[in-house]
Amino acid sequence: MTDIILVDYPGASRAAVAGLQEMFTHTVRLLEREDRELITLTTVTAKALPDVPVKAVILPPAFGNTRYLTPSKTVTLWLRNCEESSVMASACAGAFYLGAAGLLEGHRVTTHWALEQTLRDAVPNATVDIGEILIHDGRIITAGGLLSWVDLALELISQLCGPEIMREVGRHFVVDTGRREQRYYSAFTPPIQHGDDPITQAQALIERTFTAPIRISELARTVALTERTFLRRFERATGHTPLAYVQHLRIQSAQRGLENTNAAIDQIAYAVGYENVNAFRKLFKRHTGLSPSQYRQRLRR
Predict the structure, then answer these.
(1) Total-model pTM
(2) Residue 94: closest CA among 61, 123, 121, 141
(3) What pLDDT digit, counting tens, does each position of 227-261 carry?
């Protein structure tokens, strides 16, 4: 049985493919040093997919293209035909290959935060959660950001070789082997190409005035809709209630303030529209997973 197949699909990131090869090469060195059973990583293209059982398959991220949106049918059929015991792993846009193969149905998965809605549309029966860097759900392992192939490699090494080998690999490459979260880095990018012009107008108005108190009745009147119709269409078009939409914009603005200024946290809270600083702190942590001070410490250089 081949241990790991790395699929070098058209448009795959060169850095990811080479990096994964190097991480697993070092893993093999560690296994040899300890006289343990070795693992193999074989890199293949769509033209040379193996007809043998595999323990795990990796779909790396893409870079600088959208070719992952039309995955190779040869690859997706091969993925579908892999044994049910095989672990299927993807980083970033690689998830679209697993989705096209029908392997994400019913699973909780992640991808790059900017691809959240696109993956939701492609695989409506999957639960897409872009808050985390890595999600392990049964035999499906998905990782989020463009460099999340590092997290993915560490997870597979831990599964196949044990956590002690994984930590040794992390030490060698000087990477954090603890769990990270993608929501530290994600940006709020609501859909605007939904075709509902009054809601697009409302979005533009909210984005200009989000620091002021939100009044649903005024928003609805401005775009010539009843309040009830406005609420229904706004959530259908954007995936958020108007209140949640405003909160996302305020928190994102606060993140930029924490990253780029030395302003006190209460000043930033007031500037983005929160008079109650304690409420702001709770909302900020709910959205980002970090307190404002932790966020500033982690994201600033």
Answers:
(1) 0.72
(2) 61
(3) 999 999 999 999 899 999 999 999 989 988 998 88
Does one domain contain both 228 and 161?
Answer: no
Q: How many angstroms separate the Cα of 10 from the Cα of each of 33, 59, 97, 148?
A: 36, 11, 11, 19
Smallest CA-to-CA distance from 227 within 198, 191, 205 is with 198
CATH number of the domain where residue 214 is located: 1.10.10.60
Nearest-angstrom CA–CA distance, 235 and 205: 16
In a domain, 57, yes or no: yes
